[in-house]
Amino acid sequence: MLDLDHSDQVASARVRALPDWDWGARKGVCPDGQRLIGVSHKDGRGLCTDAGGSGLAVTPVPLTVVHDERYVQQGDWAGGYTKYQCGPNQFMIGYSVREQAVSGVLCATANRALPTTGRTVW
Questions:
Q1: 20-55 per-residue burial string, b: 16 or more CB within 10 A, e: under 16
Q2: What pLDDT, on the 0 to 100 scale, is given for residue 12?
Q3: Taking 70 as the threshold, does the pLDDT of residue 58 lie above it?
Q4: Cα 67 to chain center, whole Å?
C-alpha cells in the first residue's frame, strides 16, 4: 500500500532516477513490476499489485503523465468527479496528490494490447 500522508512514496527504483513528474505534489509510485489498481477517495492511499501484470511494462519505461481527462473514452463513469485514465495500451503505476485531491497519474506503456473494458467501483 502507498501512503502519501506526509511525503512521497516512490517505491520504483526506475522512477526515482527520473526528474520530478509533478512538482509540488506528493507522489506515490508502485514498486517496479507492479501496477496501481486502486486509489482512495482521500488521504492519498494507493494499492499496487503484481497480479496479472508480470512482464507487462516496456523497458526502458516510456512514461506518460496525465493531469486531465484527455484519455477518458468510456463516457462519464464517475459523474461529477474528475477522471484520470491512461492512454491506449498503457496502465497506471503511480499518482500524485495536492492536499486531498488527486493531481495526476503516471502511466507506463504495456508491451502488449490491453483490454478496454472495465467497471467502476465505489
A1: ebbeebbbbbbebebbbbebbeeebbbebeeeebee
A2: 92
A3: no
A4: 11
Please say if the pLDDT value at position 115 is more than 90. no
Q: How far apart are CA 37 and CA 91, in angstroms?
A: 9
Q: How far, in Å, are 3, 29, 63, 119 from residue 116 at the CA level?
A: 28, 23, 19, 10
Spans of all domains in the chain: 2-109
What the block records as the C-alpha cell of 38 is 486502486
Which pLDDT value is given to residue 20? 94
State the pTM of this model. 0.88
Cα angle, residue 52 at apex, residues 36 and 21 outer, rounded to 5°: 25
